[in-house]
Amino acid sequence: MALDLRLHSPVGAEPVVYTWPLTSGHGSDKHDGALEIVETIRWVCDDLPELKAALEKHILCDYDTHSYESMRALCDRFNRAIDSVVALHVRNERVNVGQHGAAARGAGAGGGGSSTARGRHGGQARWRRGEDAAIDVRSRHRARLLYL
């Protein structure tokens, strides 16, 4: 039975699946998947500064790269944090879309809808920049990342 570790994507892509044991190859071709998981989580910290402190203090603080249970717990904690952020962004977008529709209906006489729309787009622009950052990360690092 193969043991898998999954990392969820902060941009809604399919999760990356790692198969335990994480080390493969020999000598100079040796590849440590556990370190790749940790590096990927650190890259996400760079892309989502609002989560950086929490990820570093509560998720990246205690793990053993040679223990499946420890790495599974690390991935589970990370996935819960990412799922919460994605759900929050989806919830905020739904609220913002509802506000945008109400502002557009009321914008005819007073023109007040434009500031609400700008505020809404400002919030979405941050999330779009996160997706653009994912593309930058993908171009700088190995192809097998959380963002694929």
From TrEMBL:
GO biological process: one example: DNA repair
Biased composition (Basic residues): 118-127
One GO cellular component term: nucleus
UniProt keywords, alphabetically: Methyltransferase, Transferase
Region Disordered, annotated ranges: 101-130
Single GO MF descriptor: histone H3K79 methyltransferase activity
Family matches, as PANTHER family: HISTONE H3 METHYLTRANSFERASE, HISTONE-LYSINE N-METHYLTRANSFERASE, H3 LYSINE-79 SPECIFIC
Protein name stated in the entry: Histone-lysine N-methyltransferase, H3 lysine-79 specific
Organism: Papilio xuthus
Upper classification of the organism: Eukaryota, Metazoa, Ecdysozoa, Arthropoda, Hexapoda
